[in-house]
Amino acid sequence: MSGIMAVGAGSMAATYQLLVAQSNQLQISMTTLTEQAATGLVSPTFGGLGAAAATTIGLGTEVTQQQALIGGITAADGQLGLTQSTLSEIGGIAQNFVSQAGELTNADPSSVTAVAGAAQAALQQLTGLLDTQNGGNYLFGGAQPGTAPVPNPDQILSSGFYTQIQTAVQGLATNGATATIAATQAIAASNAAGTTPFSAYLSQPASQLQGDLQQVPIGNGQYETIGVVASANTAAVSTGPSTTGSYVRDLMRALATLGSMTSGQVTATGFTSLVQDTIGTLQGVVGAVADEQAILGGRQNVIDQAGTVMTTLNTSLQSQIGAIQDVNVAQVSTQLSQTQASLQASYKMIANLSTNTLLNYLPIG
Question: What does pTM read for this prediction?
Fold first, then answer.
């Protein structure tokens, strides 16, 4: 009988150990499933993903890089949108004065006074537009976005730029149209301190400024130019009977010229020629601004397309990460309920087994 008791006790101990081991495993599963149900993740740490951790880390790095590019593209798109809007206003000013300057060919003294006043106001409006800001940065500031392209724009009518053009226009009767046109063109093209209306940085050759234009990365080591500067064209070519090569400078010159005219000049030799040159210059501005907008619009399309591709790729990468990291919460909830039931059953079996004694193995009678 002692042999029977030994076998019974040994079997009971083995069964007990097996139930305890199973219970511990169920408890571990319960903890894991509870955490998964709460977070929706296979594991809150990469270590819990096992061999898939390296893949997830690699994909996560790509997602971060793509999101940075997408953020830059989104900001660039907004900047270009504001640039286009501002250019539309600039082009509108030029187009308006093509019409207004056309009235001066009738040599009506009263029209000269009216147009001159309007041109002065428009010049102040233009300098304000050139100091448009985007997110705290000056839109037309180029590589120095923190510096106003036109310092003290409200004082443009007392600036060296304006007063020098005014002096040249007032000398029309003496110097003639050809000399006056050449003088105003030279003043508008000048980068000399005391003459240029632009900041020190923007008072550089166009070739230098164009090389510093802001760019945005669009992926695969590619960049697209999005920057503009007040004193030089981005890519458009300015035309006209006399041009500085910059539609902004040409427009400022035309407005300053019109603003400097007086009613007493309508009979002066060369007045009509000066007006016609100014009209031609304004027409050149209208065309150059339209070309600039078209070029920038093409760049914006390239950027938008790159953004769409990156967004699609980013979504795909996140889906791949989700396939590794995410769990089916409904399925996990079901597994959790089943595991909880199994664990409770295991506890009951252990409790029942613990109440057994050697008397259960003694013969009756």
Answer: 0.76
